[in-house]
Amino acid sequence: MRSCLTREAQTLIRLSQVQRISSVFFGGGTPSLASPFTIATVLETVSRCAHLAADAEITLEANPTSAGASRLAGFRASGVNRLSIGIQSLDNAELRLLGRNHTADEALGTLEEAKKLFPGRTSVDLIFGLPGQSVSSWAGGLEELLQLCDDHVSLYQLTLERGTSLFKQVQRGSLPVPKQEVVAEMYESAREMLRDVGFRQYEVSNFARNGALSTHNLSYWQGSQYIGIGPGAHGRFVPRAHGESLREARIQTLEPDSWMKEVLACGHGTRKRTVLSQLEVLEEVLVLGLRTDIGITHQHWQQFATSLSLWDMFGSSEEVKELEDQGLLLLDNRGLRCSWKGLAVLDSLLLTLLNQLQQSWADRTAHGT
């Protein structure tokens, strides 16, 4: 596996036009099961193939059961400088429901060790909307965590994966999930709790204080190029052969054995390559950019649409104006962004905005502009 990771990294970095790398994120599955030596080897390969910035953010996702104190120290020595811990819950019954192997005490123990090794750069993940969870129980768990956490928190609504035991129980009705209005209240109460203790909601699911925003995630939401390495990874970059403008979406083979065979045969395990049209790129810029509190500045938009401004796309739309009047959206000299209120209901806004983008694009394409 290690040799295949390094070989694919070499191949894809060479194929891309990427010369400087500002962040590396070891995620997906449980990367903390890999050895610190594997992490160090991958980072050494990356730094040989491109300029890995001296202040690059190197994040590792970890589960409490695979991240003991000595192992965390090994990851720190290997070059990791930021840790994201999948705590998920501080309720043991909820952890069992999720199929997690750690207890709440083990999670808190890992958090304490991580804060010593990665001070100010330890993130925790929590899940809400679980079967049997109430607004008060969710708020209580979050309040407990806020007494102990570092400067970054990520909140995710439960996603039921087809085929899992939890999915089947929910489908049968034996484990009813909270109603959508209750889930919305959980999210809103969490936003307010985090804001009250100094956290900035810089993205729909992510909160930071003391400037501890994730460089890697911000780059992704801002539409930067990124290279995905390993089974099931995905990426967005402009291959050298395409010149300066045609961005590709790439997905790597999911099955590890098949992926390794492809890497050994071809240098990479890319299963699917899709050249994105300019409209598709703009759609991604819109959807991802509006997830952040900054939104999309005019300058940023012009990097992707040199001849069509945000004003051109959205300025004359009655539907967009209505969203502004409702206090959900702002289009001004800074750019396009959601209000605090709008960020909580982003999904409901995107349908209108994407329709408007597509209509404006079609109109201007028809007129040759």
TrEMBL record:
PROSITE patterns associated with the record: RADICAL_SAM
Domain Radical SAM core positions: 1-200
GO term, biological process aspect, one: porphyrin-containing compound biosynthetic process
Keyword Iron-sulfur: yes
Gene Ontology cellular-component annotations: mitochondrion
SUPFAM superfamilies (alphabetical): Radical SAM enzymes
GO molecular function, one term: 4 iron, 4 sulfur cluster binding
Function summary: May be a heme chaperone, appears to bind heme. Homologous bacterial proteins do not have oxygen-independent coproporphyrinogen-III oxidase activity. Binds 1 [4Fe-4S] cluster. The cluster is coordinated with 3 cysteines and an exchangeable S-adenosyl-L-methionine.
Family stated for the protein in its record: Belongs to the anaerobic coproporphyrinogen-III oxidase family. HemW subfamily.
Protein name per UniProt: Radical S-adenosyl methionine domain-containing protein
Organism for this UniProt entry: Terrapene triunguis
Encoding gene per record: RSAD1
